[in-house]
Amino acid sequence: MNPWPAHFWASSPERLAIAAAVTLGFSAFARVLRGVSPSGALAGVALGALFAMTWLSTRLGYSRKQALGLAERREGRSAWQVLANLAVPSIGSVFYGATGNRAWLVASVAALAEAAIDTVASEIGQVGRVDARSITTWQRVPAGTDGGITPTGCIAGGAAGFLLALLSAAGGLLPVSQIWIAVSAGFFGMLFDSFLGATVQRRGWIGNQAVNLIATLAAATVAYAVMVLG
Predict the structure, then answer these.
(1) Digit-coded pLDDT (tens) for 111-123
(2) 145-159 burial string, b = 16+ CB within 10 Å, else e?
(3) What's the whole-model pTM score?
(4) Residues 6+ apart with CB under 8 A from 2
(5) Half-sphere exposure of residue 63: CA atoms within 13 angstroms, side-chain side
(6) Cβ(216)–Cβ(186) below 8 Å
(7) How far apart are CA 28 and CA 52, in angstroms?
(8) How many whole angstroms separate alpha carbon 79 and alpha carbon 118?
(9) For the chain, which residues make up each domain, given as ranges?
(10) pLDDT tens-digit series, residues 106-149
């Protein structure tokens, strides 16, 4: 019998550090071999940062979330959850590679920012207070309710989105002057995610993965529109 629980790898900070080092190492190695451009290597680092931020926010206050019945599964997110968050930025990157239009690149970063903002806002919001506010009625609702938001969660999520966009700018994925586009579009996507959660998801019409996918698409669409129209 395996003496370690199934979640041991993900729940160990030391192993998380190893995973981060491996990600950085592969990015650097691929760059040395000219397998990726500098921006491509930094894109890998940005994805690693997204993973780290969401992992840390998920584990913060885990015991309290368990008591409230809101904790993420110990074995981590499923393949469908990951796909829902990364499908849109991946498709945007493909379109950028095919067309060379940097609007697609900014849209991809916005989608990644939305994923970071939404996850961190949800997890931190659940730690900071017992109840939240419904985005549609502004009435108090229990923590973890679909469509519920908190000031603490919004601030923490916005900071996470800004950090991800800043790392993307440092890697040349977008100029510093366009960071606000990615972060603003990502924040809009998070609010749209909450709106969908309070309406169609709460009614059982669509699931959480579909909401996440639509929200990242909304963020990417807003960013792309701003780039094209601006």
Answers:
(1) 989 998 998 888 7
(2) bbbbbbebbbebbbb
(3) 0.72
(4) none
(5) 0
(6) no
(7) 18
(8) 18
(9) 8-229
(10) 999 999 899 989 988 887 877 765 578 999 999 998 877 889 99
